[in-house]
Specification:
The termini are far apart. The chain contains five helices and no strands. By secondary structure, the chain is mostly helical.
């Protein structure tokens, strides 16, 4: 009897998965339903916010941005992109990698 779930698991793991290789394929997949579109939008918001935080904190760490300029730049990012709980979570998660960063959500 324990063999049946094992066989089922093997069949599922052997099923082919189509990779998304182009932006058009990504758009098509995200537009498949409203729910999937919302998931894609959330993932984009999280990754985009994390990328901004990483970039600005790296530039500050390398001395390219001063603390004052970093805070001004971060204010512009927030003003342009808005602020959601998901954005806040992305900032908090990303700042764990940059403990000396001047960005304070």
């Amino acid at each position: 009897m324990k063999l049946l779930p094992l066989i089922g698991s093997l069949l599922i793991s052997a099923a082919p998965v189509q990779a998304i290789e182009t932006f058009e394929e990504l758009k098509e997949a995200c537009n498949a339903s409203e729910e999937i579109d919302n998931i894609c939008a959330g993932a984009a918001e999280y990754v985009g916010t994390a990328a901004w935080v990483s970039l600005l904190c790296e530039l500050e760490a390398k001395g390219i941005l001063t603390k004052e300029n970093l805070v001004l730049a971060w204010g512009e990012v927030v003003k342009l992109n808005g602020w959601t709980p998901l954005s806040y979570e992305a900032v908090e998660d990303t700042l764990k990698n940059f403990p000396e960063c001047s960005i304070k959500p």
